[in-house]
Amino acid sequence: MLDAALNARDEHGRQWSDARWGCYAFYDYDGEPIYVGQTNERLRARVRRHLTNQRTDAVAMRILDVFEVAEMELWPLWEFEDVAGKRHPDYAAAQQRLNAVEYTAYLKAIRESRFKAILNEKIPPVSPTIDLPTSGRFSLISDATRRERGHPDIRIARRAETISRLAAVAHERGEVSDGLRRVLVIQGVRLAYIAAVRLAYAEGRPPPDPSAIDVTGLVGSVLFEHEDNPGLFDANG
């Protein structure tokens, strides 16, 4: 299904993933946005590296669990197809546009998230928000896979394993980024919520309100990196 998604064409006959410049987002089994990224080396190549061979930091460091990715969305920037390298006169403009698309897509993901937070280790650079270009959204798992892997107990176990591996990465690296520690908290929130939903179901109660967990209260703002905007934090952090 990943191959089918990468080979899908838009209304102009272009393959969505063939765009050199563009942004992408991944969603879990609940349609919850979990990761947003950008590339100027073709969407196809970047997405494949995330989802098939662990050759990206997000996957290798256990920040992004490929097992949880059920859908993806692509925002190609076709107007920059000829911009291939930093020496191109339009490179700076293309990068500025790419950053704006990524940050806008990131804010969109934050708004749509039940926790108001996603799993990016590095928050995209703060940029002016824009109208997002036309996107394509694709399912990456079959109904059979969704039934098999989507069972809450399987997802709880997998999420707990992901947190354990992420914590091990933090321990092994010794000196880790604030973003990685933030992701560890957000993964913990995701585990706590899905476990609470499962408990409520077992006891015959309505599922808990996601707002019962205040992510901002736990990790601070997820709209910018602390080091990028230190003046926006008070003396207590």
Automatic annotation (TrEMBL):
<dbReference type="InterPro" id="IPR000305">
    <property type="entry name" value="GIY-YIG_endonuc"/>
</dbReference>
<feature type="domain" description="GIY-YIG">
    <location>
        <begin position="19"/>
        <end position="117"/>
    </location>
</feature>
<dbReference type="Pfam" id="PF01541">
    <property type="entry name" value="GIY-YIG"/>
</dbReference>
<dbReference type="InterPro" id="IPR035901">
    <property type="entry name" value="GIY-YIG_endonuc_sf"/>
</dbReference>
<protein>
    <submittedName>
        <fullName>Excinuclease ABC subunit C</fullName>
    </submittedName>
</protein>
